[in-house]
Write a structure and sequence with these properties.
By secondary structure, the protein is an alpha+beta fold. It has one domain. The radius of gyration is 22 Å and the shape is elongated. The chain starts with a helix and ends with a helix. Keywords: Bacterial flagellum, Cell projection, Cilium, Flagellum. It holds the Pfam family Flg_bbr_C. InterPro entries: Flag_bb_rod_N, Flagellar_basal_body_rod_CS, Flg_bb/hook_C_dom, FlgC. It is found in: Bacterial flagellum basal body.
């Protein structure tokens, strides 16, 4: 029984690590939502992405979550804003802005926070059940 409860804690821990990294990526995207290039016509900050995959531990008989890859969004185009005074402005006075949508990032951040909290609750529940099992074994 305690092996199963330890597995729950291990799975929840992998979920917390994954969601923590997801929150970091979303936070970094939000922080750089207006980061332009440093030279005329230079590319601005590109939105970072994260992809998850399931990871199977055959010895333990459990499946947890792992980060498959960290990447950048190369499909969403940059917005262009006319700002001739910006150091990143090209010859026409246009500046490329990052391909970050703050609303999407905030929604992702909120979802990651909720998933992190759910995994934390699972960890607390497994810990409480292990403690109750130990107490029961001591009393018996």
């Amino acid at each position: 029984m305690t092996d199963a409860l330890n597995s729950i804690a291990s799975i929840a821990s992998s979920g917390m690590q994954a969601q923590s990294l997801r929150m970091r990526v979303a936070s970094e995207n939000i922080a750089n939502a207006r980061s332009t290039g440093n030279t005329p016509g230079a590319e601005p900050y590109r939105r970072k992405t994260i992809e998850f995959a399931s990871r199977t531990d055959r010895a333990a008989g459990m499946t947890s979550v792992a980060v498959r890859s960290l990447g950048v969004d190369r499909t969403t185009p940059f917005e262009v804003e006319h700002d001739p005074g910006n150091p990143a402005a090209d010859a026409n006075g246009d500046v490329k802005l990052p391909n970050v949508n703050a609303l999407v990032e905030m929604a992702d951040l909120r979802e990651a926070g909720r998933s992190y909290s759910a995994n934390l609750q699972m960890m607390k529940q497994a810990r409480a059940m292990i403690s109750m099992t130990i107490d029961l074994l001591r009393a018996g």
